[in-house]
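Let us walk through a complete example step by step. Step one is to write down the protein sequence. Step two is to encode the small molecule, magnesium ion, as a SMILES string so that its atoms and bonds are unambiguous. Step three, shown after the inputs, is the structure prediction itself.
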Amino acid sequence: MNSYVQVNHLCKSFGQGDRKLQVLKNINFTIEEGEFVCLIGGSGCGKSTILRLISGLDEEYEGEIFVDGKTVCGTSRERGVIFQKHRLFPWLTVAENIGYSLQHTGKKEKYEIVQSYIDLVGLSGFERSYPKQLSGGMAQRANIARALVNNPKLLLLDEPFSALDAFTKIALQKEMYRIKEGKKSTMLMVTHDIEEAVYLADKIIMLSPKFPTGEKIIRVDLPRPRDRNSKEFVELKKYFLIIFSVIR
Ligand SMILES: Nc1ncnc2c1ncn2[C@@H]1O[C@H](COP(=O)(O)OP(=O)(O)OP(=O)(O)O)[C@@H](O)[C@H]1O
Ligand SMILES: [Mg+2]
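Step three: the predicted structure of the complex.
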């Protein structure tokens, strides 16, 4: 059976001639349906580039990228993207932002869908607030709801929690996993945070030109819910930190 996402021999360069910069060199990985995969690696190694290519925002590359058996061609509502900074429209309320892409849905149905996502991300009571009235964590919740409202089969997240304080971050990490389990969606998240990756991922892809094939893939088989203080968790985190210190 084919994997839900298949990346084969992916290469990507920016610029031309003397100014050509090869960012990705022979990257290979797969993501199974329902899997939570984290992508980690040093700054500038091409993590966001991979996300943009899988989302279809950038279509120039060498190699193969298949999602659900098909070559990625342009963006699609089946692939939601969440960036580090929320991209809410400042002139719309939380509810209007979340429902923005449901243009062709009837008024009552739209209200119900939007409300269910507001509840899901814990923003009840803030439906009529504007983005500037929200804290960073609340704005990112609204951003997540706005991406989920289209029921994407694949959610691509680019450091979605990196600008948040430690407590908000931990709360949102827990919620992200709960949402993934409930919606049965497949997630690929870029993060700088090794603890976040070990807490959330079924599989971690480490990117570095120092690996023979450009990437190293490690499964995380710790039982869930994961205890950040357990011996196994701490040991795995230490193991990743050691590899990370060598490859970056
Ligand atoms: N549109 C572009 N034009 C030219 N170079 C680019 C472009 N986008 C990215 N790059 C270069 O490609 C490399 C990888 O960028 P990318 O944003 O994918 O890195 P990253 O791993 O996400 O880094 P960070 O952890 O800092 O977010 C960088 O050297 C960057 O300068
Ligand atoms: Mg990036």
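Step four is interpretation. The mean pLDDT is 93.
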